[in-house]
Amino acid sequence: MDPVDTKIVRSLMTEGRITNTRLARAVGLSESATLERVRRLESSGVIQGYGARVDPQAVGRKLEVIMAFTLRKQKPEDVIHFGNAMTSMDEVLDCAQVLGRFDFIAHVALQDVPALESFIHDKVIPLGLVDRMESLTVLKTLKRAHPPLPLSEA
Questions:
Q1: Bridge partner residues of 108 (DSSP)
Q2: Interatomic CA distance for residues 108 and 87, integer angstroms
Q3: Positive or negative torsion for Cα 124, 61, 136, 100
């Protein structure tokens, strides 16, 4: 990525719905050159997609929790299975495999405490992979990197 690509990415991160004409003006290129660069950034995976920023509380996800998990065993298939399971759960906004005291950290958004209890008892525990779990309740979000918020059809 060169400085122009960086300007393009920063502009799109700030305003994903910016027109190609305005984007071209902002980065100092022609519209066709700008569009070509955006398409290259998309095809190379630098730009992974576009979406709306949704406030979890505005759609009924009033409880946000940071959860830390330690797996019982570090078998590669268990790590892969747990990671795949977490990425498939609508409640999970972000999940990362980490080094240190825990194996995974997840940012979870739910309706309320009973929904958290259900998430733990109906989805996490039945995996049979977790040795230890800790939860930290989010009091206030100071900065949000705008993860996609999965919404159920209901």
A1: 65, 92
A2: 11
A3: positive
Asked whether 136 and 65 are in contact (CB, 8 A), the reply is yes
Rounded Cα distance, 133 and 60, in Å: 25
pLDDT in tens, 58-106: 889 999 999 999 999 989 999 999 999 999 999 999 999 999 999 999 9
Instruction: Check whether 150 has a pLDDT greater than 80.
Output: no
Predicted structure pTM score = 0.77
Q: How confident is the model at residue 128 (pLDDT cuts 50, 70, 90)?
A: very high
Contact between 86 and 99 under an 8 Å Cβ cutoff? The reply is no
Alpha-carbon gap, residue 29 to 133, rounded angstroms: 51
Alpha carbons 138 and 63: distance in angstroms, whole number: 7
Residue 75: per-residue pLDDT: 94
Please give the domain boundaries of the chain with CATH numbers for all domains.
3-43 (1.10.10.10), 56-137 (3.30.70.920)
Quick one: which H or E segment has residue 8?
helix 3-14
List Cβ neighbours of 31 (8 Å cut-off, separation of 6 or more).
20, 21, 24
Reading the block at residue 121, the tokens are: 């008892």
CA distance 69 to 90: 18
